[in-house]
Amino acid sequence: MNQFPTLNELKGFFSNKEGKSLFANFAQFGIYQVIIYLAPLITVPYLLRYIGVAKFGIISFAMALVYYFQIVVEYGFGITGIQMIAQSQNNNRKQSEIVSNVLIIQIILFSICFILLGILCFLIPKIHDYRFIYLFSYGYILANIFLFTWFYIGVEKVKYVNVIISISKLLYILLIIIFIKNENDFVLVPIFNSATTFLAGIVSVIILRKKFIIRFLKPNKDILKRYLKEGWHIFLSNIAMNLYRNTNVIILGIFSSDISVGIYSAGEKIVKAIQSTLSPLTQTLYPFISRKKIEEPKKSIRYISRMITIMGFIGCIISILLFIFAGKIAYLLNGSVNLAMVRVIRIASFVILFGGLNYCIGIIFMTNYDMKKEFLKSVMIVGILNTIICAILCHLISEIGAATALLLSEFILFMLLVYHIQHNKYKCSTNPLEL
Question: Which residues form the domain of 405?
Fold first, then answer.
């Protein structure tokens, strides 16, 4: 059974060079996540008061749809890109090759998706009526490409991207507070989001070239094909995960009103913002584990095992606290106690626990230890189940149904991942769930 690391073990690990570097990255991620955490806590209540729940629902629906395109454009490089960079940290030529080819692939995918969005804007009345909201929201995807967040995580130098993204988020909050004064200003929200992220992307490219001496090389056809093949399973996994993590907003928008979408989206954003406080731990260890898997396989398993234990303990505490204080959080968001929003937050609160465990087991362990197909199979099953369950529950109990479907999906995924690890022990000499 998993155990917490002892105090002496922690002291020993963090006293060496590797441990100090890991702790520095963790601290930098922590500062960054505080900013990311504060952004929705400030902007969501502000927007609910000044543009109203219905307009907030329209923006949320647009962002949920655009996120599908973002998954296509990222094409799993948020995972495979980190792995490739982490395993070539001392090879500048190789890193330049990776960055150049990933960039070309993402720009091609971005262009294809832009055409598809344009078609949807003219064919679907619900989208056509607010087409500028969707088009402005889509600009965030282009801006996100040039952030190269996956590169900085891979080289374990997250402080650069953390600083520029944090500044862009603070600028976004400032613009929202200064310019959003009534419901007619809601069109400015996606404009500010895309513009501030794009500025961060420009700075990121400059740092990439000046600090890391990355040169954009002529793409190679064979390399492009190889990268597409390597990212395929993660890409499909991300699509499947999106079916239960972000599709609920779209399904709810089909079966219910903009107000219901706004209530659910506000509650979900707060839960996910709090969940993001766990990201420093997972994002710091992912490239570390990818590298350790090559250098010291058995030791990397031990790190994963400890991480699962710690993540489960912290996630449980946070989920319980969020459940207890859901009423106060809803009051801060809306200026009054909206019972539907309280229920959404309480139901979704335990997504933090199971979501964190699923990331540790599925992404950090299974993708590093030749279980990508099993991980893909699991998230595809959950994605399909969530779509069916969410559609039924949204039709019956609106936003409460969407929150219930989200929690059920994370729990089912957790059970499936544990099942696959227990039945695929031959792929790894040690089971991280049994250490």
Answer: 7-427
